């Protein structure tokens, strides 16, 4: 097992139950205010966003409220971005068991995000349309922030003390060597565009298709190795709160995380979002769709995040979170600087590692529920643990939960199974 795999499988630093227990004991009983602003400039008109500050875990019960913020940066058309905006939230929520307590709900969320992203991708592909989209999807429940992302629309967190951290991973082939290896192993080719007698230009892309991203929703025509399985990170803010800046690459190609955070500190969210977009425009001009959401999670007795950066932490954070880092997965712990407690982080593209091993079986009926799309299916029609006959002797048996026929096919396709074997010389 490689070092990377070990780090992926690391347990949560602080068990969620412990944190929620502390909360129940009144150490952090106030729900924070969530204030937000949005700004955008369109070049191609392919950026979409979602703001839902009033969701409820239990419909009709305002005590169970949570907020959702998301950005969808479409490419090769807009239909995937629109489809994801309209369907992703429902697909995620349907993967969380009914009747879950708040603690169970938050613990189920990372897995439900994976299921929801994959389900949305399958549904979009079934429409037979082209186009694809990045997704950066943020769920805020109390002080707990959960971010799922495919593509390169970043979400950064700016906390009191001036610590800026990245909650997403850039799924760009140019900058992500792990993803390059995964795409190649699953049957894609990675290289630059060839023009004029073999000169290579532009960023690394995968072929066929020519996409610069390694993960997205949609992109039916590109290849299944461009997977919709999101990187997921769940953190708990201190009761000093924090600011999220969620933006498409129109911002991040112009501004570093640090500069974006610094450019708007101390300003209300609405104004902050406008200022970040303005700063990006000033630095680079309008080269791409540029969309920015700013979300402040603040103590209810404090109207605005105070602008009090501490210099020594700025040095640390810019060292850790520099954009040009060759290593896409952040090994540094936010909790190391005492600002944020890291609850969960997982970025593997393998469904078996993301969905867990338990099986959803209705014992009374003998019906299995697909862990991705939540469709009920008799087990004989789908895939369950130790289902050896579905595989050639060379492939490892599936060690994940039950998948329906459709989702099993999707899983195999994403892992490059079913294509002609490559001769390794
Ligand atoms: Zn399914």
TrEMBL record:
GO MF: metal ion binding; protein serine/threonine phosphatase activity
Domain annotation PPM-type phosphatase: ranges: 32-297
Keywords from the UniProt entry: Hydrolase, Magnesium, Manganese, Metal-binding, Protein phosphatase
Superkingdom, natural source: Eukaryota
EC number: 3.1.3.16
A Pfam family hit: PP2C
Keyword Acetylation: no
InterPro entries assigned to the protein according to its UniProt record, in alphabetical order: PP2C, PPM-type-like_dom_sf, PPM-type_phosphatase-like_dom
Cofactors that this protein relies on: Mg(2+); Mn(2+)
Keyword Membrane found: no
Catalysed reaction, written as an equation: O-phospho-L-seryl-[protein] + H2O = L-seryl-[protein] + phosphate; O-phospho-L-threonyl-[protein] + H2O = L-threonyl-[protein] + phosphate
Family according to the record: Belongs to the PP2C family.
Protein known as: protein-serine/threonine phosphatase
Organism: Cannabis sativa
């Amino acid at each position: 097992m490689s070092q990377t795999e070990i780090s992926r499988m690391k347990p949560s630093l602080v068990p969620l139950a412990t944190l929620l227990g502390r909360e129940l004991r009144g150490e952090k009983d106030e729900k924070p205010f969530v204030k937000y602003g949005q700004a955008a400039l369109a070049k191609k008109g392919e950026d979409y966003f979602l703001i839902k500050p009033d969701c409820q875990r239990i419909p009709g019960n305002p005590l169970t409220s949570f907020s959702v913020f998301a950005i969808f940066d479409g490419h090769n058309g807009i239909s995937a971005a629109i489809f994801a905006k309209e369907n992703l939230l429902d697909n995620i929520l349907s993967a969380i068991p009914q009747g879950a307590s708040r603690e169970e709900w938050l613990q189920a969320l990372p897995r439900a995000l994976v299921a929801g992203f994959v389900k949305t991708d399958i549904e979009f592909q079934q429409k037979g349309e082209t186009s694809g989209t990045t997704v950066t999807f943020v769920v805020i429940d109390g002080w707990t922030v959960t971010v799922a992302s495919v593509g390169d629309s970043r979400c950064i967190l700016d906390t009191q003390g001036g610590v800026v951290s990245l909650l997403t991973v850039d799924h760009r082939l140019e900058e992500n060597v792990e993803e390059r290896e995964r795409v190649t192993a699953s049957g894609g080719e990675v290289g630059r565009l060839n023009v004029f007698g073999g000169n290579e230009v532009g960023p690394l892309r995968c072929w066929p298709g020519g996409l610069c991203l390694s993960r997205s929703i949609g992109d039916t025509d590109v290849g299944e190795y461009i997977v919709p399985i999101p990187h997921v990170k769940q953190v708990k803010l201190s009761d000093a709160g924090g600011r999220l800046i969620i933006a498409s690459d129109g911002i991040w190609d112009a501004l570093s995380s640090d500069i974006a955070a610094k450019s708007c500190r101390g300003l209300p969210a609405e104004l902050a979002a406008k200022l970040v977009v303005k700063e990006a425009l000033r630095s680079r001009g309008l080269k791409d769709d540029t969309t920015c959401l700013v979300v402040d999670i603040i103590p209810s007795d404090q109207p605005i995040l105070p602008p009090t950066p501490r210099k020594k932490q700025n040095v640390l954070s810019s060292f850790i979170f520099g954009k040009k880092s060759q290593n896409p997965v952040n090994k540094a712990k936010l909790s190391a600087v005492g600002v944020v407690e890291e609850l969960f982080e997982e970025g593997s593209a393998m469904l078996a590692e993301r969905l867990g091993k338990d099986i959803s079986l209705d014992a009374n009926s003998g019906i299995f529920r697909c862990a991705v799309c939540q469709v009920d299916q008799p087990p004989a029609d789908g895939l369950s643990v130790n289902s050896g006959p579905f595989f050639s002797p060379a492939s490892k048996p599936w060690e994940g939960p039950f998948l329906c026929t459709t989702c099993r096919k999707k899983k195999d396709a994403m892992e490059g199974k079913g294509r002609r074997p490559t001769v390794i010389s």
